[in-house]
Input
Amino acid sequence: MKKRSLALALSLALALGFAAAAPSASAATWETGNTLTMELPKDYQEDLSPAPETGKDPGAEPAEPADPVGVVVDLYLVAAAKPWAGYDAYTYEELAEGFESLTMPDMNTVTVADWDKLAWEASDLVLQAIKDGTAIDPTVPGAELDTAEDLKPGLYLLIPHGKDMTPEQYITSLDVDGTEHPATLANSANYTYTFRPQLVSLPAQGLGEDSVGEDGETVPGVFNGSWENEVTVTLKPEQQTRFGKVTITKGIDYYEEDEPATFVFEVTATKGTNEDGTPKEVYRNTVALTFSKGVTPKPVTLDQVPVGSHVTVREIYSGAFYTAEVTEQSGDLTVDLVDGLNLSFENRHGPDQKRGHGIVNQFSFNGESWDLNKVDPNAAEPAPAPEA
Output
């Protein structure tokens, strides 16, 4: 196999950018194992950590949050490294088993985009092999978000994913510049975190302290030429709101077959509070169910309601022919509700023979704003669930 050479270790460190070396008094040596500490951004650490437990004694101090958080990292050695004689740098030896098809970038012209491309290519090999049942063995499987020790020098691929999730659950897909790549995810109670693969090279060059320029702007520290065995990497997940389902079922005790019977429901969900302390609305929609001759409407399911929200469903229209036993129901849409939140309404047939008809203003969220769709509730088919 071809030997992959690194022109200058400095150029690699600049390209990989996201690896920060911890301060150390001694230079790295090839006889000493490397230590890699992996962490999440602080805002995400709290969300992905289990809630602290409180002791039975009411006056007891709350227990520390469980360690580690709900994310683990599979580490893969992509290519081993060795000192480059005559240079303050190192070379990569042949690519590790499972990664032989990769092509290392030209170190004389390498860019951050080149390393990003290589990370995706390496990750594609790993995740596709897992899906095919021919997994590439990780160097360190399921490393906790703490410290992996005694790592040999080389280029490593980091694949984070949910701690208690199976590959079928944590492998997803992500569009990267028009190309679909397998990616990984982890879930908290309210959010889904999608991870991009990352590469890190061990050992790494240390960074000097930031300084302030003449214009008052912060000048990032430059590589100071010392080699560090202790490296910290901050993972970079993308956070998305986690959605659940709300299903509305309608029942009536008697149906007058000569006229359709339409029932309209307003659905709202709140989560958190506004600046003035009032509940913050995160979802609003209106749906209808229509009974007609030979047709009993199926339950309506809304599948873009944020998990962790408090959902309220109000029956706002049933004509004058039926009387609602309950006009409002509510509940919390939590992550442990596998089938979502199910709410049922019953109406009783009344003596008043007045008829009713209306147009339903149905709303769907397009990712940025709410779209209005006017629906005839007396159509032959029941109103479908709006698409997000």
About this structure: The chain has two domains: 9-240, 242-375. Helices lie at 9-16, 42-48, 112-132, 167-170.
